[in-house]
Each structure stands twice: as C-alpha cells, then as structure tokens.
C-alpha cells in the first residue's frame, strides 16, 4: 500500500506541463528527494507477525497508537496513573495536546477563554489550565445511560427500556401534552443526584 502511494506521488511530481514541471526546479527536486528517502525507509521496514504462542503486548504498540488511547481518557486521574505505568505514556501525558483536548472535552470555549484571560501566564500550560477549570467549574459528567425521571408520573426508569406512564392511559392527560415538547418530560438523573434520594 505504501509503495503504491509513493509511486503515485512520484508520478504526480514528475508530471510535466508544457515540457517541464511548474514552479521552482529546486523545490521539485527537494520533493523527489523526500519521496525517495521515504521509499528507502519503507523498503527497510520488516513486518513480522507475532508467533502463535505469544500474545501481542501493549508495550509493542507504536507511540501514535498509545497517544490515541490516552486521548480517549476523560479523567485526569487516569492520565496520571497511566504516566506511572510506563515511561512512554509518561512522556505522552506531558504533551500539551493531551491536556488541551481534555479541556475541550469537559469545558466550553467560553470557560476556557475566561481562565486564560484571568491567567495570561498559563496560556500555554494546558495541564495547569485544566486543573484551574476543574476547580472553578467542575467536570462534565459522561455516562452511557442515566436514569430518567418522568415528570408526569414521577417514575424513575431507564430511557432505553421505557415505562408505563399515566399519560399513555389517560386521554385527557394526552390532550394536555399535545403542545408540549416530549423530550422535556424526561429529566436525566445523574448518579450523585440519585443517591441523594436515599440520604437522610
């Protein structure tokens, strides 16, 4: 696949218009040299499949794949624990991109900008910005599914399962709800709020 892409790229670079490539000759030569260098590196790559009696290890993943794993963590504590687990992950956790995307996941652009405006010296330190935002606004809660509270019958239920509601059996009640946004009838209940139902 890589050889084919490089071959196609070389054809594009070598394509002549009016007898010669358009643009700087030196620039085109640099492009060709770069393509040839990539081709030489690709020729030296040896792909060895794992043996049947040995399972692939996480440490064998390329750094780019490990970075993608870290980018999918939504908790700073998970990132910090990952940094203690492996030196490569520790180096990646220190990258600005990891913390910048974590900020963008949990906080709005306005919230981020407000912290940057109030602390101009931290505009490049996304890890520090994240912790300031966390202390100021708290973290965004993300769950696969939350319990819902029906405003009609005060029933708690899983949205994916549904529930028998009074609105489904009472025609008079149904008439009252004709002009109501149905999505507003169900209130998501986060775990912390659910636990408060049982607090004394």
Automatic annotation (TrEMBL):
One of its GO terms (cellular component) is cytoplasm. GO terms for biological process: protein ubiquitination. Pathway: Protein modification; protein ubiquitination. Keywords: Nucleus, Ubl conjugation pathway. It is found in: Nucleus. Its main location: nucleus. The keyword Nucleus applies. This is F-box only protein 32. The lineage of its organism: Eukaryota, Metazoa, Ecdysozoa, Arthropoda, Hexapoda. The gene is FBXO32_1.
